[in-house]
Design brief:
alpha/beta; nine-stranded mixed sheet; 680 residues
């Protein structure tokens, strides 16, 4: 056992060293060393591309049984070469009864064969051994190897290269043979029976009579599908191969240990109907190793995230998924996202598709008879209807979609900023739009935003406090909103509040158009929209001495790697907060929508706010990590009506009793965070 372990080089450079290989084969003796699987793993592809009577060259043969296996099935015209004289001597002796086989000591960078001698050149791991680093010398040697292979192959001949396809090797193969104008195919072999946890790829590179003017590259990576996938660029091929490599590494990693809480482990699963975009994204989360296992529901389960919910905090963030795993009480939870650009007929179809794959992601030692529980939030799959998709330099890719639930819950419309981690910028309940005339049998239902009901606590919390402000009957409530987004907050304020004037600022004109086209935003004499940078707008307003009763900062960060998701860091700088104070009336409120994953940053924000406003109130949203901060110079008894929802309220613009009860409840739920003894 110790000898075998010592055979693996300590440095990749040793792979290229003749002395290393001589030493290797002396220690190994006559026992074959199959780097990337046995003949049985490769024979299907070899027989697909090599005829029995063809002339075959095996480069860097080592003491692999590949040559003798090919000979024994009828490929008699085989020459095998290697740099090591020791292995050539060993193999010649071992195969002395195979009369037509030849083993020659030869440098593949400078071969002695005549031009166009061979129909096929087989390379099993030899290129991987040669390309041990990125040095100029290695580059030159690989170029010599490829040129020699091109020279000794006839027109229509195939270079069959078995490789792990590390990044630099994959790039070198594809770039070189694209430049040579060869036809390229890439296969993946079944690694189920291999000792390797990484996938093994077979490149079939065909020498053409005429150099191909454009890239001809086909992939056959799905072992359950014989069809080839044509790709249009080297980058597409690299991405697909990297995903299989990532999957292999992930399987190895998660099968041998508990996933560290600092790690983010996920895999993509594709299907043949839409090979460009993954059908499923699966996050694998473990509970901490010190958890009391007697209190768990089981070892392993799969949670299918409902369509449209994948961009909510609980499912889209690492912390959220850890909380979900803790709530589910399984040692390991595979959290499945159903991705866009795919159709999902039913939950049963999803179960059927995932069942063969998810066992790969189970903890090590789980019995094969283990029945994996499948968890979800509903009996079936919701429908996602993409209404509009666009992009801008400011916001990146964004889209509007309607989510039609499988149960009786109302449909919703949302504006989503894709970025790196998709973020719901706006979401609103929809109601069916009644059209005049008789409806056609094939006519789809039409929906429009419903501003008489609340989907998000965020809007209810803000409106509840705005209802509660003490106002003179003759005075309009002047509101400034920085961050229009889909315009939903603006429309709620406009529809629910009496005597209100709203100024809303949005930096991206394309988002303003989305708000008008898809979320019912309308400008009029009491609703004004400004396309401007919010920071510049605040600074200019402060210089001009403008003031509002309510100033609301509702701005998302474009950096999902940051622990501050909203607002952007610039909005919590002291100079900006000073100007926010300047443009807020002394009897008014400054409101900030804070989405922060770091308690340290949160405390820093609160400390800055209390420099300018002695009273800071907080109301946290129960469903996610948003926290609405209300800042004022005056205490709550002077600022708010004590019982705003009892009797007639001058701010009120609705008679909806259910909504009033909810607003009454949230109005009482906030507390003063800079004075812990003074809770609402």
């Amino acid at each position: 056992m110790s000898n075998s372990l010592n055979l693996i080089p300590g440095s990749g450079k040793e792979f290229r060293n003749k002395e290393y290989w001589d030493k290797f084969f002396k220690i190994r003796g006559s026992k074959a060393f199959e780097w990337y699987g046995e003949y049985e793993n490769l024979c299907g592809l070899l027989h697909k591309y090599i005829k029995l009577n063809e002339n075959v060259l095996v480069v860097g043969c080592g003491n692999s049984r590949l040559s003798e296996n090919m000979y024994d099935v009828g490929m008699k015209n085989i020459i095998s070469i290697d740099l090591s004289s020791i292995v050539i001597q060993q193999m010649s002796v071992k195969n002395k009864n195979r009369k037509e086989m030849q083993f020659l000591k030869m440098d593949m960078l400078n071969m002695e064969f005549e031009d166009s001698k061979f129909d096929a050149v087989v390379d099993k791991g030899t290129l991987d051994a040669l390309m041990s680093d990125y040095s100029e010398k290695v580059e030159q040697d690989v170029d010599k190897m490829f040129n020699e292979i091109e020279r000794v192959l006839r027109i229509g001949g195939r270079y069959i290269c078995v490789s792990l396809a590390q990044d630099h090797i994959l790039n070198k193969i594809l770039e070189t043979f694209k430049e040579k104008g060869w036809f390229i195919r890439i296969h993946r072999i079944d690694e189920q029976d291999l000792d390797f946890y990484l996938p093994v790829f077979v490149f079939v590179l065909t020498k053409m009579k005429m150099k191909l003017p454009n890239l001809m590259l086909e992939l056959q990576l799905d072992l359950n599908n014989d069809k080839f996938q044509r790709v249009n660029s080297i980058e597409d091929a690299q991405n697909r191969i990297k995903e299989y490599q990532h999957y292999g590494l992930t399987k190895f990693y998660i099968s041998n240990k508990t996933i560290d809480t600092t790690d983010e482990v996920f895999v993509y699963l594709y299907d043949e109907k839409n090979p460009r975009y993954p059908r499923y994204t699966i996050y694998i989360v473990d509970l901490p190793g010190n958890i009391n296992k007697t209190k768990l529901n089981g070892i392993f389960a799969v949670f299918v995230v409902p369509i449209g919910k994948e961009i909510e905090w609980l499912f889209s963030t690492k912390l959220g998924r850890e909380e979900l795993t803790s709530q589910a009480k399984y040692q390991r939870l595979a959290i499945v996202h159903l991705n866009r650009d795919h159709q999902y007929p039913s939950l049963n179809d999803i179960i059927s598709e995932l069942s063969p794959k998810v066992m790969d992601l189970a903890p090590k030692g789980i019995p094969s008879s283990y029945k994996i529980p499948l968890l979800s939030m509903g009996p079936d799959v919701d429908v996602r209807d993409l209404k509009f998709k666009h992009s801008s330099q400011i916001s990146g890719e964004f889209f509007v979609e309607d989510v039609i639930p499988s149960d009786s819950v109302e449909p919703t419309r949302r504006l989503v900023f894709q970025n790196i981690t998709p973020l719901i910028q706006t979401e609103i309940i929809l109601k069916e739009e009644r059209k005049k005339g008789k409806k056609r049998p094939d006519e789809k239902k039409s929906y429009k935003p419903n501003y008489s009901a609340f989907l998000e606590d965020f809007f209810a919390i803000i409106l509840a406090q705005l209802y509660s402000i003490k106002l003179s009957p003759e005075k309009n409530l002047r509101i400034l909103i920085i961050g229009l987004g889909g315009g939903v907050l603006t429309m709620y304020c406009k529809n629910w509040l009496k005597n209100v004037e709203i100024d809303a600022v949005e930096i991206d004109p394309k988002i303003v158009n989305v708000a008008k086209d898809w979320f019912g935003l309308k400008e009029d004499e009491r609703t004004r929209i400004y396309v401007d940078d919010g920071l510049k707008f605040i600074n200019k307003a402060a210089e001009e001495g403008k003031k509002w009763d309510v100033v609301i900062i509702d701005v998302n960060s474009n950096d999902p790697t940051s622990e501050l998701w909203g607002p952007t860091p610039e909005f919590i700088e002291m100079d900006i907060l000073k100007n926010c104070k300047s443009i807020t009336e002394d009897t008014g409120i400054f409101i900030m929508n804070l989405l922060c994953l770091s308690e340290k940053i949160r405390k820093s924000v609160l400390e800055k706010l209390t420099v300018f406003w002695p009273h800071v109130f907080s109301n946290k949203l129960p469903k996610n990590r948003n926290e609405i901060l209300f800042c004022s110079k005056i205490d709550k008894n002077s600022l708010f009506v004590k019982n705003p929802f009892n009797g007639k309220n001058e701010n009120l613009n609705s008679n909806d009793g259910h909504s009033m009860c909810m607003l009454n409840e949230v109005a009482r739920s906030f507390k003063e965070v800079n004075n812990n003894d003074n809770n609402s």
